[in-house]
Structures
1.
Amino acid sequence: MKVCVVGQKKAGKSCFVRRAVLNKFYDRLLDEHNVSVYNKNFIGVEMEIWDPSTSEQQNTVLQGSQAIIIVYDASQLVYSATTVDLLQYLQLELDHLKKTIVPRPLLVVVGTKSDLYPCLHLQDIVRWCDEKMVRHFLVSARFDDIYAVCRVFRYIATTRNKTCCAIV
Ligand SMILES: Nc1nc2c(ncn2[C@@H]2O[C@H](COP(=O)(O)OP(=O)(O)O)[C@@H](O)[C@H]2O)c(=O)[nH]1
Ligand SMILES: [Mg+2]
């Protein structure tokens, strides 16, 4: 199953993926120009997790994804203005993905860096995700353990299994 991770630069995409796959945290930017691909089995579902660095790379590797994780920097949720910017970004990204990826993938939103500031406007994002019927997770790649971060991938695996059963 191909899973792609997208989001703005420095949102915390690579750290999120590395915590989930390698259980490591790197306190600096790495692989800024690469597309990293990791393989890992989550509750019986073999996943190929793609972590492109730039938005150009994101657009070229997205096709064929059965699930896409939109990662955002939850430390932005401390101000209303940055929360509004974030909601605009999420709306654009969601519209773009729904239009361009066929067949339509499972979409998940993940806020990361929850350790940095209190997420004062978290409810705005959670409400938005509820309206769009997209599952939302809040994590810290720095301090959460691998089990907590992997909730996202277990959710994707479970939802995919349910969809397959429904089709059969
Ligand atoms: N405090 C904190 N910093 C983080 C977390 N995740 C990422 N960072 C930092 O945010 C910066 C960007 O992270 P990175 O994963 O490379 O972002 P990417 O460009 O979206 O792949 C790096 O300096 C990371 O150390 C987190 O959960 N908590
Ligand atoms: Mg990265």
2.
Amino acid sequence: MSERVTCPRCGDYVDGGGVCPECLERARATRRENLQGELALRRLSGHFYLLGMLGAFASVFGGLAVSATRTGYVALGVGVAVCVAVFALGHGVARLRPWSVVGARVIGVLLLFAFPLGTLLGLEALYVTVRYRELSRAEYREIVALTPELDEPPIPVWQWVVIALLVAAIPAWFLLRAG
Ligand SMILES: [Zn+2]
């Protein structure tokens, strides 16, 4: 005989514990309604990753090429630190973390001034984090945790390696032409 315990979401008794079938079905329905928003946030996260990668490579290549002075190294360090922060932001956005939504808006506003690509990314960051703000709430993350079968598979590491190499080629190409 399995023990009868209450469903943590509605309080009804349920055999064997866990969430009752009705609550699970409601969670699935809510999740399906919001998959579009999740996709938009994942896309934004990917764009932050790209921005972080491009910035990191540009900082390193640029720092190495320009100057071996103390100022050069400080600029290099600051550049890399900003890129690490952008990476962390991308990571948080993909995982629907509330702090990352706030961070994405701050970076989004700053990016608006980097016309034209930065402006586009800034607008995307502001639009997506306002339009889909409900998805970063704790209630929604609970629903996500209940419905892992609806998760999109993550991008495999080898694809990120290929993307990183392609992105690294951009500052490298500029430097070779300039040098
Ligand atoms: Zn329930």
